[in-house]
Write a structure and sequence with these properties.
By secondary structure, the protein is α/β, with parallel strands linked by helices. The chain contains 6 helices and 14 strands. The protein is about 25% helix and about 30% strand.
Length: about 180
């Protein structure tokens, strides 16, 4: 039988949310295994994602706290004003920071954020990346959650994705008492 390795958390989904979550845990000494069925080499290719994301000032502070500041510095486009309307209806909302407050946030290419997150995660000893990896089965019991992959076995996980994302359905997330996660190659 293979030796079991232990970690604190398993994160299903190694995209923008999953890697940011793993880095947030890692800076506090929490060990993580990140599982994603996608191949990171493909996700980091220039043609993979042409979208951009608006990163608020507070989210930028989070990025800086998890070590992304240097990788993103000077590469975003400042958001100096936000104007919101409802089609042709009268009225609107106009968000403009007071003089001296700086800008509201920054626009970044998703590919730039993804690369910064991935490189930072690779550099953290608390984070173990398993990409690509497919989930074979999952089971919830009194001991926590077990996730079986083709090569690995996990006994606790966190789903990182949108509120209606497939990761949450796969994880069948619910509150469980904290457990250490067993990893069996």
């Amino acid at each position: 039988m293979s030796k079991i390795q232990f970690a604190d958390v398993v994160i299903i989904g190694g995209g923008l949310n999953g890697l940011a979550q793993a880095l947030s845990f890692a800076v506090h000494g929490v060990t993580c295994h990140v599982i994603d069925r996608a191949d990171q080499a493909a996700m980091l290719a220039p043609h993979f994602d042409g979208r951009v994301s608006a990163i608020s000032s507070s989210s930028m502070k989070l990025f800086e706290a998890i070590g992304l500041g240097p990788a993103l510095e000077g590469k975003g486009c400042p958001i100096e004003q936000i104007w919101v309307s409802d089609g042709l209806k009268p009225g609107s909302l106009d968000f403009v920071p007071d003089e001296g407050d700086g800008y509201l946030g920054q626009m970044f290419e998703n590919q730039l954020i993804r690369r910064a997150l991935y490189e930072a995660a690779k550099g953290r000893p608390e984070i173990h990346l398993h990409m690509p990896a497919e989930i074979a089965s999952s089971k919830t019991d009194d001991a926590g959650v077990r996730v079986e992959l083709k090569k690995w076995r996990y006994t606790h996980r966190i789903a990182a994705g949108g509120r209606r994302g497939p990761q949450k359905r796969v994880a069948r997330c619910r509150r469980n008492p904290p457990h250490r996660m067993g990893l069996r190659p």
